[in-house]
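Subgroup meeting minutes
Present: P.N., E.W., G.H.
Scribe: E.W.

1. P.N. recapped why we're keeping a running log of single-chain structure predictions: easier to compare across weeks, and new members can see raw inputs and outputs side by side.
2. G.H. added today's entry (333 aa).
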Amino acid sequence: MKAAVVTNPGADPVYGEFDEPVVDDHHAMVELVAAGIHQVVRSRVEGRHYSTRGIWPAVPGIDAVARTPDGTLVYTGFVDPPWGTMAERMAVPGQFGTPLPDGADPVAVAAGMNPGMASWIPLARRRDELASDRQAGDKAGLGTVLVLGATGIAGGLAVDNALALGASAVVAAGRNPDRLAALAERVPTPALRTVRLEPDEQRTADALADALAGRPPSAVIDFCWGSVAEAAFRALGRDDLDLPDADVRYVEVGGTAGPDAALPAALLRSRNVTMSGGGLGGTAVTEILARLPEYLSMIADGRVQVPHTAYPLSEVGAAWCADDGTRSVVVPG
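Output recorded in log:
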């Protein structure tokens, strides 16, 4: 079959032939409709992601919109390596296939589900937690949400998701000033505050602290880690030990600023900070499947707008190298 093929770690995918997927009693064969080139896909191809199996050659791609034998369009994934989703056909687990709502754009779904769900799951979980906590100040929403890395596709969607889930304020931090300005223009609300991430860690920490206005966020979605996380840790540090609502959920999602960060012990002792990760293996499949339909419907009806560009599978090389601020998606052809 035709597929995008990666011959060794770090190599760009090329269009070529690859063995047909293996189908057994637990898998179903489906046909490609659209598959996104997400950050996690790039990290796996480079051999940097913790989920990389190290089997080469391989087909990249972790999720897709696909067509089942009866013609149903489904959002699916979890393909066993060395196969991926950027191929004419793929074998997917029989239980993992969420039908698309009528009228949904399959390319938009392929572009948005992975980067959007990265923040939707932890933010929806935090919303539900606050709603069930009788001591929460805002039982219906999220309070303040801090997004680190807000100028990427996933970060921009995290801002949208936080507001959709009832955040009273969102602090969006990113390195690219033009994209920060575009984000502020796209989301014209007093609830949004933008912060430019500076090379100087202390300046970044001070800017984040100013934007938070002395109130701890209820949730932090971190696509950066590294020095950016360390600046955020400084901003979250507190002298006001009598502040009652210092309950913070810090979720590490990506590592664009580095794989390691030094976490101050004083921060953990002075605030009720819960550190966790969100990603492959870090979130139960049952929770992913339970929260998929709601987000899928939001993309389908236009409440979530995902900038994307479609490329034929035969032009996967151009799709891989594109850097125009949209999510590249491969489609048959």
